[in-house]
Amino acid sequence: MKKLIAISLLGILSACNSNPTAEKPDGAENYALMCAGCHDPGPGHPGTMLLEQAGRPVASLIGRDDLELEYLRAIVRQGLIEMPPFRPTELSDAEIDEIYAHIMSAKPPVTTPAKPVKKGS
C-alpha cells in the first residue's frame, strides 16, 4: 500500500512540475530532431540517398527550391516509401510550416570531394 501511495504521489508531482512556458523547438531544431537523420546531405542519410538514386538535382532537403508546402505536409502526414507518417501529436501543422521555412531559407553545406590518397607518400 505504501508503494502505491508513493508511486501515485510521484506521478502527481511530476505532472505538476511540467513547465507550460518552456521554449518549444523552432524549425531548425525540429528539422535536426525529426528530419536530418534521413534527409541531411551526404552519405548515410537514406532519404537523401534514395533521391540521389532517383536522379534529383538536389537530393537533400536543405538547398531545394522545388518543394511546395502542401507537398511537404502531405508527405509528412502520409509517409512515402521508407518514410513513416508523422501524427499531429508528433509534429503539428505549425511545426511543419516552421520546418518548411527552415528548409527553404537554409543554405546547403559546401561539400568538397575527397582527395585520393597518394601511394608512396
Account of the protein in words:
The structure is a single chain. The protein has 121 residues and is mostly helical. The protein has a domain at 24-105: Cytochrome Bc1 Complex, Chain D, domain 2, CATH 1.10.760. Helix content is 48%, strand content 0%. It is built from 6 helices and no strands. The chain has helices spanning 2-16, 27-34, 36-39, 46-53, 69-78, 93-105. α2 (27-34) crosses α6 (93-105) and α5 crosses α6. The longest helix has 15 residues, at 2-16.
Instruction: Determine the structural class based on helices, strands and strand pairing.
Output: mainly alpha
Tell me the major beta sheet. Answer: none
The CATH topology of the domain at 24-105 corresponds to: Cytochrome Bc1 Complex, Chain D, domain 2
Uncertain regions: pLDDT < 50 for 5+ in a row? Answer: none
Number of strands: 0
Shape estimate: extended
N-to-C span: 74 Å
State which percent range the strand residues make up: under 5%
State the name of the first-level CATH class of the domain at 24-105.
Answer: Mainly Alpha
Backbone CA Rg: 21 Å
Helix residue percentage: 40-55%
Separate helix tally: 6
CATH superfamily of the domain at 24-105: Cytochrome c-like domain
Order of helices and strands: HHHHHH
| CATH architecture level-2 label of the domain at 24-105 | Orthogonal Bundle
